[in-house]
Design a protein that fits this description.
By secondary structure, the protein is an alpha/beta fold. Helices cover 31% and strands 18% of the residues. The chain has 2 domains: 286 residues, FAD/NAD(P)-binding domain; 146 residues, FAD/NAD(P)-binding domain. The strands form 5 sheets. Strands 1, 2, 3, 4, 5, 6, 17 and 18 form an 8-stranded mixed beta sheet that branches. The two termini are 28 Å apart.
């Protein structure tokens, strides 16, 4: 029997989060690590989401690592192909591709308390690791809705994150289910080519103008050649985005000012009163994810587009039946229904010190995590973009880099002080989360009169960080070993 391959650090996922950890380790000349990637290429979300119109709703200047700013962006909001090329270029420039095991899916990970290491099962064989970083990401598992008859549909049906490019939608009757961030990019991209498009909307999203523009060649040359130019531009965009916290968290009534502008924009484009009624949100701006587009509303005014708000009662072999009984024939269905975030399949694969999986721990006591990164009962494990670390107003890469700093400092602290294991104390985790949840009182996310994936049925917001992002960075600037139970190397 072949012995498992052992590594100091095992990283699950080769998206922005996992690659960032790998790059920082290599920069510190720590080379005893491996990255498990289930696909044949890096990129994570930006590799998988190749649907028509795919792009980023965070400004380009913020959507790069701080240590690898990109002067080659051609637009202030970048497209999926450009972001994917950026990720691939960064990986190759920093020499971490050789540490990635491609086409390797993690099928289980269990903490062995006696050996003080993680035992990891993969499709490439068994591994062990002293430290494990789960960077699978919250947008890695598409959510397939549980709709009656969905498996009986005879035409093409696929999720937006698993776009079937072999299916030709031109001239077809297409149903798009969902009106989130993917749908508002897909709908305008295909509406002009399809014979008919039925858009199934559960609740109307707030859609703000997309204040984007192309960068000129002179601007790109300026960013490449002038030292500090892009750092200055990035800083300006960053601080502008931080002001969003004032009306989302600190003074929610200010959201109504921005909502008024969004309403005017909608009224200007949508002349049909009934359609306008369907598209008018019934909750405060910011309660759900805010969307940006200049082409979504115009697409919905097309004669071949219908917005259906009655819900889906059933999917049949060649049609979709709405709750009001209307039976609409369709040739293809696109599921723009988001991702499994709270019940990520990754949580079912990771088993902690007491034999419970991460899914079981979260299910029994709620998704309580320490600083969005570590969990009691899971020694030597770090979770990237974990509960209460997401930012609704700025780049996720800011969260990722803050967590990378914390993880790297934890590893160097362990190496420097001879620690074998670190596990956040349950009391420290509980105290942290009690204080954290009080910060959501009165925020637009918890008191904005909507039902969103940010907040569970008990009113517990296990998704967002409720404050300025620089405070999250400050919180994770150094590894606070005093909050952890530790053991020493023998």
């Amino acid at each position: 029997m072949t012995a498992p391959h052992h590594t100091r650090v095992a990283i699950i996922g080769a998206g922005f989060a996992g690659l960032g950890v790998a790059i920082r380790l290599r920069q510190l000349e720590i080379t005893d690590f491996v990255v498990f990637e289930r696909s044949s290429e890096v990129g994570g979300t930006w590799r998988d989401n190749t649907y028509p119109g795919a792009g980023c709703d965070v400004p380009s200047q913020l959507y790069s690592y701080s240590f690898a700013r990109n002067p080659h962006w051609t637009h202030s909001f970048s497209t999926q192909p450009q972001i994917q090329r950026y990720v691939q270029d960064v990986v190759d420039r920093h020499g971490v591709r050789e540490s990635i095991v491609f086409d390797c899916e993690v099928t289980g990970a269990r903490w062995n308390d006696d050996a003080a290491r993680w035992e990891i099962e993969t499709t490439d064989g068994a591994y062990t690791a002293d430290i494990m970083v789960s960077a699978a990401g919250p947008l890695s598992a598409p959510n397939r809705p549980d709709i009656k008859g969905i498996d009986t549909f005879r035409g093409p049906i696929f999720h937006s994150a698993r776009w079937d490019h072999d299916v030709e939608l031109a001239g077809k009757r297409v149903a798009v289910v969902g009106t989130g961030a993917s749908a508002i990019q897909i709908v305008p991209s295909i509406a002009g080519a399809v014979a008919r498009l039925d858009l199934y909307q559960r609740s109307a999203p707030w859609v703000l103008p997309r204040m984007g523009r192309k960068y000129s060649r002179l601007e790109r040359l300026y960013y490449r050649r002038v030292p500090g130019a892009q750092r200055l531009a990035r800083s300006g965009v960053y601080w502008l985005r931080e002001t969003f916290v004032f009306w989302q968290s600190k003074y929610p009534p200010l959201a109504d000012f921005f909502a008024a502008g969004a309403r005017v924009k909608m009224w200007w484009v949508i002349r049909d009163r009934e359609l306008r009624r369907k598209l008018t949100p019934s909750y405060r701006l910011g309660c759900k994810r805010m969307l940006i587009s200049n082409v979504y509303y115009p697409a919905l005014t097309r004669d071949n587009v219908e917005v259906v708000t009655d819900g889906i009662a059933e999917i049949r072999e060649q049609s979709i039946v709405a709750d009001d009984g209307t039976d609409r024939e369709v040739d293809a269905i696109v599921l723009a229904t988001g991702f499994r975030i709270a019940d990520s399949p990754t949580y079912e694969l990771i088993t902690g010190r007491d034999g419970r999986t991460l899914a079981e721990v979260f299910g029994a006591g709620g998704m309580n995590v320490y600083k969005g990164t570590t969990i009691a009962n899971f020694p030597n494990m770090f979770l990237m973009i974990g509960p209460n670390s997401a930012l609704s107003y700025t780049s996720a890469i800011f969260t990722i880099e803050a967590q990378i700093n914390y993880i790297i400092d934890a590893i160097t602290t362990m190496d420097g002080t001879g620690l074998r294991t670190v596990e956040v104390r349950a009391d420290a985790q509980a105290a942290y989360n009690r204080d954290l949840q009080t910060k959501f009182d009165g925020t637009v996310w918890n008191a904005g009169d909507c039902t969103s994936w940010f907040v569970d049925e008990n009113g517990h917001n296990a998704t967002l960080w409720p404050d300025f992002s620089f405070r999250f960075r400050r919180l994770l600037q150094t590894f606070d070993v005093e909050a952890y139970a530790t053991t020493r190397s023998e």
